[in-house]
Amino acid sequence: MPAQKFEKKLDSLISVEFKEKDGPGLVFLVSKNGKAIYEKAIGKANLELNVDLKNENVFQIASMTKQFTAVAILILEEQGKLNVNETVSKYIPDYPNGDKITIHHLLTHTSGIKDFTKIKALKDISQKEMTPEMMVDFFKNEKVDFLPGEKFEYNNSGYVLLGYIIELVSKESYENFLKKNIFDKAGMKNTFYATDRQIVKNRAYGYHKKESGYVNKTVISYSIPFSSGALMSTSADLLKWQNALTQNKLLKKENLEKAFRKNHLNNGEEFSYGYGWHLKDIKGIPTREHGGHLFGFKSMAVYIPSKDIYAVTLSNCDCNSPTEITKKIAEIMLKNYSN
């Protein structure tokens, strides 16, 4: 498929799915062999100032943060500072049942720990500045949902614990560890631990859609999602991230591969989550995927390793879900490059 025809196909797919141009919107980036071959932005970055979205805009990426947390853990393992089979109690001695829960359980959402997003009291702390230790204390004494390794159930608490362990082991903040070991090495100059106070150049504002129209996003303290969902980035920086992984700039190949292996429950049943990525497929071709959702923002990225195809979509309204369209874009790319 010639580039022009291919662009037309993606343009028409996007225009059918997202017709509104005056509301918040989305940015799209598609790459092949590490190079962006399609970029598009539709909608507004700021409704009050009537500013159009552009691909340079910085978005909350929400749970896509989990990829960075998982890789940070593997970097510490490569440095010989921890092992994913070690238990939580090695690092947090008073953690309930911590001698049965491993770092591997946290990475794979099989720990059984109560997800803090399901705790009613969350609204009482949602705007407080919490330390990682305070966040762990918030959920650690909740009744567990199941025993470690019994089930796969998506869990934000596990990834908050991982961020706390990163700080304890590295003796620096999660934010600094990621900047030094990931963002700087990958050349990601527009990726940050989220803040509402500091000036972030090209920041896209987040929105909700109500019956009466759009409203500004609910304000929360980013210390709540922490290492499970507090990063912000651009589509171009996320491509740099993907390329840094592909080119083994951050980890040796054999160590990074752990993130992309399917795992097994105690009963031997396989489930399709690695460390920070869902391991799925499009028409039988393996993919690595993850999305995110945080007040006012949604994100989704699909990577097809065998073709080095990457598709990422970022939205500044939680009314626009990028999940299905990103998969459709990846499918069109796959068709285009399957010959």
TrEMBL record:
<protein>
    <submittedName>
        <fullName>Serine hydrolase</fullName>
    </submittedName>
</protein>
<keyword id="KW-0378">Hydrolase</keyword>
<dbReference type="InterPro" id="IPR050491">
    <property type="entry name" value="AmpC-like"/>
</dbReference>
<feature type="domain" description="Beta-lactamase-related">
    <location>
        <begin position="18"/>
        <end position="319"/>
    </location>
</feature>
<dbReference type="InterPro" id="IPR001466">
    <property type="entry name" value="Beta-lactam-related"/>
</dbReference>
<dbReference type="GO" id="GO:0016787">
    <property type="term" value="F:hydrolase activity"/>
</dbReference>
<dbReference type="InterPro" id="IPR012338">
    <property type="entry name" value="Beta-lactam/transpept-like"/>
</dbReference>
<dbReference type="Pfam" id="PF00144">
    <property type="entry name" value="Beta-lactamase"/>
</dbReference>
